[in-house]
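ugh ok fine here u go
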Amino acid sequence: MESTELETPATLTIDSLLDHVQATPARLGRTRLIGVDGPAGSGKTTVAARFAARAEARGLRCQVLHMDNLYDGWDGAVRGFGLLRDHVLQRISDGREGRYRRYDWVQGAYAELHVVPTTLDLLIVEGVTSCDRDADHWQSLRLWVETSNEVRLDRGIERDGEALRDRWLDWMRWERDHFAVQHTRDRAHVVVDGNPTVAHDSATELATKSVHLDHDSAAS
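structure:
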């Protein structure tokens, strides 16, 4: 199998990465799993949505799961990953539907039940901790999305309001240490620029900083 190791800024089509994913054996029951991780405010949700759009254009049955819906509040990211691992990924691997309750950030409690069927072609999980090591053996593709701390914080304050600045700063410190322990960036197959300056079609292409893939697909 050929290996692609690209360490300079470039563009890569989302379709070529989907080609890679579909060319590899499913590792989560019949479902192929993509994880989209990286620091808060880097653009993970946007990247996941674009992957889902391209997958659905291929006729794939696809679902996006947001880690924000699993966290037990600002201090609950580790618990959120545990819920993902034990109640979604492990259950699907065992042939049972995944199940989780959405965390309601306004109420500060878990709310309605959501189901993740075993019949999906593609499950995309996006958010901090989505690519923690315990998910590796199920994942067909790991993406890391990054941009500067300044851009991330500006995006966060714009979304959540100035009153949550300290919360954001605390989170940024926590996730930095978590990623260092997990070596999340180093384990990613693709590192994506979340605030790119290189010209590209944002709907169908990613601006990448590095690519590490072992396969014979069109992304090679």
